[in-house]
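[agent] plan:
  1. take the single chain provided in the ticket
  2. run structure prediction with default settings
  3. attach structure tokens to the ticket
  4. add a short note for the reviewer (M.T.)
[agent] executing step 1
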Amino acid sequence: MTKPSPNIFVADFITQKLAESDKTQCEISQLCGFENANVMTMIKTGKTKLPINRIGPFAKALEVDPAYLLRLVLSEYLPDTWQAIEAVMQTPILSRNEADLICKYRRISGNTDTKADVVDFEDKLAIVAA
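[agent] step 2 finished; step 3 output follows
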């Protein structure tokens, strides 16, 4: 598993996930509805932005969390829009991993509103419910 990088750019994330995928760029392009496989290269290099309406198929083709990819794309391409969406929603939009963390916290805390202490050891995170 690749160690997460803080503030990763969309192009870098896509390049990383394409390298990890067992699918070719051509296959992924077809799954995403791109007629030309060169679009994938242009997205990887940052010359073209990943179209927002292709995030779902793209995430599925690369087997990544669509909510995470949406957040990554909007926070880079349209940061003011992303902030407005989160403000209106009044809660952050969570990836599957983030939602799983919350479910585990609730289970461990007995579904109470227990204060959690977070311990950050650079590459490991511990949450302690006291």
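[agent] step 4 note for reviewer: Residues 96-129 form one domain.
[agent] ticket updated
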